[in-house]
Amino acid sequence: MKIAICDDDKSAREVLKTCCGRFAAEFQIDCQVAEYASGEELLRDSSSDVLLLDVEMPGMA
After folding, report:
1. DSSP state, residue 49
2. How many domains does the chain have?
3. CA angle at residue 34 from 1 to 24, to 5 degrees?
4. Which residues span the domain enclosing 38?
């Protein structure tokens, strides 16, 4: 499973990545987690199965 985390806050991305890793280990799921600091960066690589998105980011109305 490919998971994408998009958040402008690096610490929030790290917490979510850790949670995803623990979940994958507990349920024996092969999981790859990619981190993105912006929506534009995420759109360049749209090959994820699951998206975890920040709802308040700079430049978004």
Report:
1. S
2. 1
3. 40
4. 2-53
CA pair distance 53, 19, nearest whole angstrom: 15
Query: Which tokens go with 59?
Result: 């430049």
Task: Give the pLDDT confidence score for residue 56 in this predicted structure.
Answer: 76
Compute the radius of gyration of the chain from its Cα atoms.
12
DSSP H or E stretch at residue 16: helix 10-26
Distance CA 29, CA 45 (A): 22
**pLDDT tens digits, 5-56:** 999 999 999 999 999 999 999 999 999 999 999 888 888 887 899 999 988 7
Q: In what order do the strands lie in the sheet with 32-36?
A: 32-36, 2-6, 50-53
